[in-house]
Amino acid sequence: MAGCTGTYDRSKLPDAGAVVFHYSNLDKEPIPWKHYRNPEQIFVFFSHESPSYVIHGEHRHAMTKFDDHFINWTMTYRTDSDVFAPYEQSKVINKIIDEGGKWIESKLAKKKKVALWVVSNCAFLRGSKMRMKYTDALVESGLPVDRFGGCFNNKDEFKQLSVDDVEAYKFYLAFENAQYCKDYMTEKFWRNSIGAGRVPVVWGPSKKDVEKLAPTGSFIHTDDFKTPEDLAKYLLYLNSNTTAYREYFNWIEDPDEKTLKLAKTYELTGPHRLCKMMLSNRERKSHPSVSEYFYNETTNCMSSQEKAIK
Length: 310
Hints:
Family: Belongs to the glycosyltransferase 10 family.
Subcellular location: Golgi apparatus, Golgi stack membrane; Membrane
Strand content: 5-15%
Keywords: Glycoprotein, Glycosyltransferase, Golgi apparatus, Membrane, Signal-anchor, Transferase, Transmembrane, Transmembrane helix
Largest sheet: 5 strands, parallel
Protein name: Fucosyltransferase
Number of domains: 2
EC number: 2.4.1.-
């Protein structure tokens, strides 16, 4: 990685410039740094999970094992991390922009169905339940949504769909399992929507966060609609109006400055960015409390109680 080598080989610990700790794995085995720690090493906290999942799904109510200045840098999907590590699927922006109109036309030529949703987490978290109810409301409002996954007992049926069938959908419900967690956008947005040539319909992250992290004009956000019925009507309108639908791909042929900057940003994955920071001799600070950083979230993000769907 541009001058660094990543390894899982723990015999290399004494030589490592940085040690990356996944949030779930610090206490799995005897850890030598309880007795000795190389003062030159950078200890990095890593997570791609939302705090909502960690605290309510895994019942980790504290990150105290990372506190008391144990960690030097954080590496997560959040833009306020020391090392910004977005879901790697986001790097597809560059490839799509490079292909431009040719890419758009190849995708649009296959669009014959309305909306797709693949999900296996139905009621595990507050967000899981809320997104299920929202989707039910969309379907009840007349929006054709083909739903697959463990929640609908048809995983095998989805696997049997042809490539043409899968690529025929115009929209993908990029509904996360947590609401308003800072910058939390996963493969649902990048791989299942943008990379697959579908317009993402977003629920979970705030519209402000999505605007910050996504190509301009590339998505539809549920917060812009008073009710699921209003959203369903709008998606049906786009389904019948090719010109209006195609506008959600304008960022590819005519990217604005922000979109081009994002494309440049996403050229580096988290590990590449970590390497670059290490080689640049960035300040080796420490975090008094990773718990305070990781759980410093909105009430909606951290709540276990559902809210009513309008």
